[in-house]
Each structure stands twice: as structure tokens, then as C-alpha cells.
Amino acid sequence: MSTLRIFRKKPDDLGFFGKLGFYLFLIIGALISVFPFYWMFVVGTNDKGAVFHVPPLLTVGDQFFHNFKRVLEKADFFQALGNSLFVSSAVTLSVVFFCTLAGYAFAKYEFPLKNGLFIFVIATLIVPQQLGVLPTYVIMAKLHWIDSYKALIVPAMVNAFGIFWMRQYISTAVPTELIEAGRIDGGGHFRIFWKIAVPVITPAMATLGILNFMTVWNDFFWPLVVLKNKEHYTIQLALQQLFTTRDGLDYGMIMSATFTATLPLLIVFLLFSRWVIAGLTSGAIKS
Amino acid sequence: MAEPVITSPHAESKRPFLTEQRRSRITAYTFISPFFILFSIFGLYPIFFTFYLSFFKWDALNPMKFVGFKNYDLVTSDPTFWISFTNTLIMGLMGTVPQVMLALLLAVLLHSGMTKFKKTFRILYFMPNITSIVAVTLVFSTLFGNNGMINWMLNGLGLDSVAFNSGWWGVKIAISTMVMWRWTGYNAILFLSGLQSIPMDLYEAARIDGANRRQQLFSITLPLLKPFIIFVSLQSTIGALQLFTEPYVFLGQAGTGSTRQEGITMVTYLYSEAFRNGFFGTAAATAVMLFLVTILFSILNMLISRGAVGDTGGKKA
């Protein structure tokens, strides 16, 4: 920031060069953020040798379908995409439902041990996943869930972050009087939750859903541990597999697959980016 | 707020056992029970079992055999473990420290009032984080290839090519770069939301007192941002210690496996002990040590960020 001190007359005015440097820095940062996406597309649409082109090739080619055909020969790409879609959707629906229920209970009910239990929920966020990986794997083996989607879905069906995030939102967004009025009218507990609370908090549910979907979609470690059969691979495992081929690395093929696998998430993110970022920042400071 | 929120007093006399209060308590417990049931099975029990398992010799098939501290001896006398340990620390430092500082700088720049396109920048900076680590690693493995773009740029600057996919430092630089690319923008947005929570009149008051930008930065912005700085660096530290996918995928090409010494990390070591070699006991001991290291570094990190930012912001309410 030392250059900024030259323009000292008005403390807020950077002057022309200050502004220029300022925007230049931000733009270079943004370009670095975006460039790999573009590069993925460039390599995916050019022929095999494009990666090693000197100077680096930066224009989009017309070999995309040609490359992508080789992906389909090497891997069940769409099967893997479908698997990921299934697992991520199942986990997300379940997480949103159970976390909303639990968040609602912590926000709007009084019961013994409430605060203690909530602190426990928050405390579980600190424990690293790897600590329990081996026994969890053994449990999965005992349940005969290895190589099945149950191993991916069931342990992830509800999580502490979601409960925390829904509780925060519900305690401010859902008026307690409305719930009491519903009780006086004789509505059941779940019915009131469903008819009165849920319509008010759909934005928070959507944010939680998107964040969770991205996490599950992008997970690599746990699927790698429990999935054995290639038919069951999620898209991340399928992508990694393309990279492991022995006969020379076909980057055109790899990148056409990577790009196709990234595109859906990218579109969803761009459509909902405001929510995603809001969700991220409001859940950020929990301690 | 000790009174139950949802209670209708009319029902109490009619039903002596299932009063409204009891009913709403039961409902509340039912609503929160899925978490506690699932966490007990797939969270709490495995954690305790890992500690227990670390004292046994076991291949996940045959009966377990108690060996005391032997697993810990085996792990700590394995040079590969210590390589994975140093790698994790080196890559952790290389990926985290510059990343957090850069994120802070980006956030401060984005926050200064006159930034146009703030929303667009936020979206662009966040984009790396939505990509899967596998995809990121594949892309960067082309950029860091022997004839890749990074080496082309180095040559253009008159420097020698670096063996990013096989050299001791090369691999570490490549992997740290991937980590930085993925997380810098994410952290910048966390910092940005922290900056936005600082009341503007503080700055106005400081300006009236004649404080320049630098003074404002060091005596208002950074101290008030302290909780965010601690949170972000803590999260980055924990994330860095769990590094797995980047080295696994980056070094896993051509079927050579991922335990190559240039990039093996503690989690990679754990993974290969358990799922490649079938040594569940030593893998459990590794998990326990990883956990202890995580706690140690979390505490260390808290102390450092507390010291670095200064205690001016630590005023108690």
C-alpha cells in the first residue's frame, strides 16, 4: 500500500495511477481465478498435442466431440455423472430436511439439555473426518455397504453445519407468535413446521442445499475408500481414472471430460451465486 | 426463556400424562434425533474405536491382536512417515501463509469504497472453490507439465525449467499453487464479509483525528478483523494438514501410485497403510497422531494470529 501514500491531499482519493494499479491488481487476480476454466476448455477442444504447443495455444478448437468420444470409450462417463447426481441429490434432500427440522427444534422449542446438546453439535465441527475413517470403513464392511451408495449417503444424511446454519436463520426469520397461533388452532407439531416455518425459510434451505450439493459432488476421499466397482464410480473417481491411463496421457480427452463434468456445477453456481456467497459468509464465523 | 415456547395450558388438565409440554419436548427430541443417532454411529463411535484400534494389530479380516504401543513405534520409526510429516508441514506453510495474506489484501482492496463491479469480482474470485479438486489437479498438471505453460513462462523470463511433477521442491510448489488457487478467493470473501461488519463511523472518526490509510488499516481494520483472521487461518491450517486429493491425483498418473516421496502427505500415508497395505493398526496410530498434530497446530495458530494481529481489538464487551 506504500504507493497509495503519494496521493495524500484527500485521504480517500487514490488519483489516476492509484486507481489504475488498484484495478489492475484486482483484474489480474480475477484472470488467474478464471483462466484454468478457459484453459480446460481450450485443451478439451483441441487435438492431442495442444497441451505441448509452444507457445501455448490459447484459442478454442473444434475437436471437442472427437475428444469426448474417446472419453466414452475409456469410462462410463454418463453413468458416473448419473451416480454423482443421484448420490448428491439424495444426500442434499436428506441434509436439508433433517437439518431444518433440527435447526427448528433448537430455535423454537424449549427442552432439557437444549444448550448442552447444541454446544455438542457445534463441537463436532472441529473433529477431523480422517480420525474416524477406518472404523467407519469397518462398519460399512460389516453392514455389507462397501461398494454401495448407502455408504456414501447414510453417514452424510445430516450434519452439524446445516443444523447450526438453519437454527441461526430460523430464530430470526420465523416469528414465534405465528407458531403459537398455529398451536392454538390445534395444528400438530410437524404440520406447523411444514405449513408455517418451511415457507418462510426456503431461501436458507436452498443455500444449504447448494452448498451441500457442491461438497458431496466434489468429494473424493470417501468414495475412493468405499467404492470398488467402476460401474459405481462417482464422477470424481471417473475423472481421476482417466488420468491414470498407462498409454500416454491424452489431455484433449481428459480435459473434455473435466470440462463437461465441471460445467453443470458452474452453471448452477452462476445462477445462484448470490445465495451461495451469502450462505458462505453468514456461516463463516461460528466461534 | 425457561418457559417452553410452545405450550398451550388448556390441554394439561385433560391429559395427565401426555401434557402439551411433554408432547412438545418429545417432538423437539424427535426432530434433533437423526443427527445424534447418525453421529453416534458414524462419528463418535469411530473416533473412540480409532484410539482403541491403534493399540492392536489388525488387517480388518483376521482377529485383532493387542500390541500396546507397538503401532506407534512402527509408525515413528518408518522414514516414509517422517517424510509425509515434513511434506505436510512444508506444503501447509507454502500453501497457507501466502494464501491468507493475499486473501486479506484482496479483501481490503475489494472493500475500499470505490470498487466498481464488487459483486462480479466476488463471483469470479469464488469460482475456483466450486470446482472439484480432481478437476483442479488435472488442469494444473498440464500447466505444470515439463513442457507446460508455467515452464514456458519461466523460460521466457530466462529461467530454467522446473521438474514440477518429479522434483522435491517442484512437486511441492505445484501442489501448494493448486491449494492457493482454490482457496484464496474463498478466504478473501470471508474477510470481505468481516470487513463489511466494521462500522463505517469508526473510520470517519479516525479520519477526523487525522489518521491516514495505513494507520486506519493497522489500528481499526486488522484488530476488528481479528476473529475472521483467526477463523480463516485456523480453517486453512486444519485443511492443510488433511491434504490428500491434490497429491494423490497429481502424483497418481500412469498408475505409479500416490505414495511418491516428493508429495506424500500424512493422510496419503494413512490411506496407503490402511487400504493398500492392510495395516489398520498402524493406520489408526497415524490417524491419532494426525489428530494430535492438528490440535497442536490449531493452538499454535491461535497464539500466532493473536500475537500478529495485536491485542488492541481484544476488548471485552
From TrEMBL, chain A:
Protein keywords: Cell membrane, Membrane, Transmembrane, Transmembrane helix, Transport
Pfam family name, one: BPD_transp_1
Subcellular location(s) of the protein: Cell membrane
Membrane topology of this protein: Multi-pass membrane protein
Tagged with keyword Transcription: no
The organism's place on the tree of life at top rank: Bacteria
Transmembrane segments annotated in the record for this chain: 20-41, 85-106, 118-140, 152-171, 192-214, 251-272
KW Transmembrane (keyword) present: yes
Residue span, ABC transmembrane type-1 domain: 81-272
Family label: Belongs to the binding-protein-dependent transport system permease family.
Protein name per UniProt: Carbohydrate ABC transporter permease
Source organism of the structure: Paenibacillus tianjinensis
Organism placement in taxonomy: Bacteria, Bacillati, Bacillota, Bacilli, Bacillales
UniProtKB/TrEMBL annotation, chain B:
Regions crossing the membrane: 31-55, 89-111, 123-144, 224-244, 279-300
One Pfam family recorded for the sequence: BPD_transp_1
Key words of the record: Cell membrane, Membrane, Transmembrane, Transmembrane helix, Transport
UniProt membrane topology term: Multi-pass membrane protein
Domain named ABC transmembrane type-1: residues: 85-301
InterPro entries in the cross-refs: ABC_transporter_permease, MetI-like, MetI-like_sf
Subcellular location: Cell membrane
Family: Belongs to the binding-protein-dependent transport system permease family.
Record-given protein name: Sugar ABC transporter permease
